[in-house]
Amino acid sequence: MVDRSEIDMLRYLRLSTARVRGLCARADRDHIIGAIVKGLSDLRLWAVVGLVLANMTVPLAASASKAAPAIPVQPEHVILVVLEGVGQDALKGGPMPVLSRLVKEGAVTWSATGVNPPLRLPTMASLFTGLPVEKHGITWNTFDFIRGYPRPPTVFDYLDLSGGRDSAIFFMDESLYQLAKPEPYTDYQMCGPLKPECSAGTVVGYIREYFRKATSGHGYGHAILSLPHFLVVHLPEPGRAGAAQGWNSPAYRESLRNVDQAIGSILGIYRELGLLGRTTVFVTSLNNNAGNAKLGDHGSEAASASLPRIPWIAWGAGIKPGYAIKQPVSIMDTGATVMRTLGLETHTEWESRAVEEIFTAPRPASVDHEGAVRVDGKARP
Questions:
Q1: Whole-number Å distance between alpha carbons of 15 and 19
Q2: Is the pLDDT of residue 300 over 80?
């Protein structure tokens, strides 16, 4: 005599595959198996279990593949490394594994433009103010106390006004005192050629000590009582070595190795503090190694016929990996891109524009008090 449960199971086997899958998608795996095993009176019907499990794999796999999208990380810290005398050729012939990794894993263009004249002080002023030389007015290349600080606001001012963000700036040339305007939200440290011991490694030591004191709870000097949101590090050694010893000299290659190790050490500090996963890194150069870097230490105000082509690299939190930047980029765009990285807006007339295409998530539009939609800090019709 055939057991009633066996008849029920045979009827179940004649169900269409679609109905079986639908049942399995709605039922719990353990309940289905338990119900089947409980009603079995013959070991031959264990085959039913295999059929049910086989039909369950499709809906289960489909549901597993629909994982929730990752929430974009909002960067909390930005590092800007400003080199000199470094172009794409430096990576081909120089020992720079850290920078090569940033290029491979980040977004990059090798044809960003600098400014004219391609001198250290005017170019750094354009980077900070987001303005061309003819607008910020700094055309000289040595520190001149009488001329004072630049009048236009800088990215450091915008960071404080828009979001109360602090900045720490480490320069490696005394001419940049011209830009070191003292404010409660900035802290400057200088290590230039007038100090024989000054090197990329020395600057890293300064940064490490600064971070140690900033995390101690007692502050650092008069300015910042916590870790900076924006760290600027100037590393000009390759430009100096190339101009003095030649762009194919051992001294130039050694300088590339030194600045690469310095970048790696700075990233290591952020990693030790658990900050690297929420940090975005930008690397650019005031000039490249194609002949204009020799102007970096000279006081000449002569401008070249065309704007210098420089690298501009973004890496880290919120940045597209392995991405070749398509839009034109100027070194003046760095400030607005830093603001965009930290989720801040600028309602100013500076000529800096965020390099929007490098980000993994689009920037949400905001509405100002007059009802105008703003994108990249500018009102759009």
A1: 6
A2: no
Cβ contact 224:211 at 8 Å: no
Strands 167-171 and 186-190, sheet pairing? parallel
Spatial distance between the Cα atoms of 377 and 193, rounded to a whole number of angstroms: 39
The single residue listed with the structure tokens 């430096």 is 90
Beta carbons of 53 and 22 less than 8 angstroms apart: no
Q: Which CATH superfamily is domain 77-379 in?
A: Alkaline Phosphatase, subunit A (3.40.720.10)
Distance separating alpha carbons of residues 327 and 285, to the nearest angstrom:
18
Residues with Cβ within 8 Å of residue 135, at least 6 apart in sequence = 129, 152, 351
97: cis peptide before it, omega within 30°? no
Q: pLDDT for 122-158, tens place per residue?
A: 999 999 999 999 999 999 999 999 999 989 999 999 9
What single-letter DSSP state applies at residue 185? T
Residue 47 CA to its chain's centroid (Å): 56
Report the alpha-carbon distance of residue 167 to residue 181 in Å, rounded. 12
> Coil, helix or strand for 291?
coil
C-alpha–C-alpha distance, residues 250 and 35, integer Å: 77
Which of 226, 83, 231, 76 is CA-nearest to residue 156?
231
CA distance to 24, 83, 258, 261, 310, per residue, from 254 (Å)? 65, 14, 6, 11, 21
What are the extents of the domains in the chain? 4-65, 77-379
Q: What is the pLDDT of residue 91?
A: 81
Residue 109: C-alpha distances to residues 316, 332, 349 (Å): 16, 14, 25
Distance CA 157, CA 129 (A): 9
